[in-house]
Amino acid sequence: MNKFQYAILGLAAVAMTGCADLDYNEASSRDEEWTYNSPINGVKNLVYDVYAQMPSEFKDDIYGNGAMIASATDEAEFALSYSLIHNYFNGGWTPSNPFSNTWEVAYRAITQVHMYLERIDKIDLSEYEYAPDYDNMVQQFEIFPYELRFLRAYYYFELVRAYGDVPLVTATLTNAQANSVVRTPASEVFKFIVDECDAAAQYLPVSYNDIPGQEIGRATRGAALALKARALLYQASPLFNKDNDKELWKQAAAASKFIIDNAALWGYQLSAYANLWGHETFTNPEFIFVLGTQASNQFEMNNYPVGVENGNSGNCPTQSLVDMYEYQADGKTFKEKHPGNINVTTENPYDGLDPRFELTVVKNGDMWPSNTTQQMAIETYQGGFNAAPKYGATPTGYYLKKFVDGTCITTTNNPTSTRHNWIVMRLAEVYLNYAEAMYNYYGDADAAGEFGMSANDAINVLRNRADIQMPEFHGNADFEARYMRERMVELAFEGHRFWDVRRWKKGAEFFNNVQVANLTMDANGNLILNRATKARQWNEKYNLYPVPQSELQKNGNLTQNPNW
Predict the structure, then answer these.
(1) pLDDT tens digits for 392-417?
(2) Which of 214, 246, 338, 540 is the most buried if burial means most Cβ atoms within 10 Å?
(3) Closest CA to 294 of 424, 155, 422
(4) What is this structure's pTM?
């Protein structure tokens, strides 16, 4: 028996939780004998296939034309009215037309994980025993099972936050068995995620710098524990914690604080906000887990303003988002200082705003994109070069800058490309998660408690970054509202807002309508900004996804989410 087989026998003997087939054909396109008899190619490819299915807004185009999930929130409005993203709030979302593929993708990936874990004893590396890199090969294969357990936990997190109760089974099933499973309570699914993250974290490396290949984008100890902390925060939130069990908030705080306390040891540190995106940012030490893509300029074409060659407007920040930014001088919000119409010719209302605003939003008059080939002063006022009535122009008065590489050239002749790295987890989110859990546990934003850091302390770590320098948080007055603003601003366009508002059960407050900016020129040649409301539909049933009708038809034991 070879060294690798000895190392994994104990793992194979553990009762591994499995997943039903659930909309996935048991017949795999990969030949099983080849997969396990050619481990260097077959097994590695199976593992990488599971990684490849992780959702990334830079590689997936679920809604068409590059629409991001931010455009289903108050962060943005997608410029093209026919995009499927509008179904989230225009009544086009139904069990027969769920259009999100979360159920299908997650269960397919989970099934692939089980294919590996249940056949792990078949992997034989003995024929490579005398290869010069044999020890490195064994080391890599010993990590694979724990990477896959992390990934399985991640896919279950995707499922539970979207659907609530979902089937959680303990063995690979036949199609007949899979189509008779029942939904498992969300609390049990969360417990499974947490337990799996704890189990995998013990064996996952802190980084892959000393692992063969030094690959990035693979599961680490930090990633497993960050997923655990996020799952605990969701479980403690109103959507899932109907009785407001304080103990759940305490567990969430403890999980986040453990990461904060070990961040430096594991090589994590907060970075400049501007360094969260760009061609080389996959090495950013703030990233706990990130998914890279091949170099392309598609994201730029999707989001450059109309009027820029090959620009399609895309995901346009709303006035609702802009109103959340605060001024550095006094911490007042944009809306607090400018609740009515604004003459942007005689005053610059954006002067002195949180630096994250300029890094996230393109406004009228900005020189954008930054490449000299296409750079221009952007005009978003009615009749302006980048505005209505041009087809597809911004419907909000703003364009997106965050994640858009302004140095990228999208001209038909001599275009350039850049890499985009989708942030799954980063250290700033952990601080925010901790602050939320601490406040909800103690009911006091200044209470450091047994963890030695208060909710306000955690927020101030972010606001005191050298490139941000915003007024500190103190006291409890309006803490919840201030925290929600801070989270929205810090994590804008990173895919959190859609889920945060749902787990807080505040859709009626934030998503029912959104504010946009109308810029018009008056008779004196002054540009006037006035707010307009974009009507959207919100229904409490939207807090959870509908179970796809196709699944209900196959399995009479499944039940639909309320009011769908």
Answers:
(1) 999 999 999 999 999 999 999 999 99
(2) 338
(3) 422
(4) 0.93
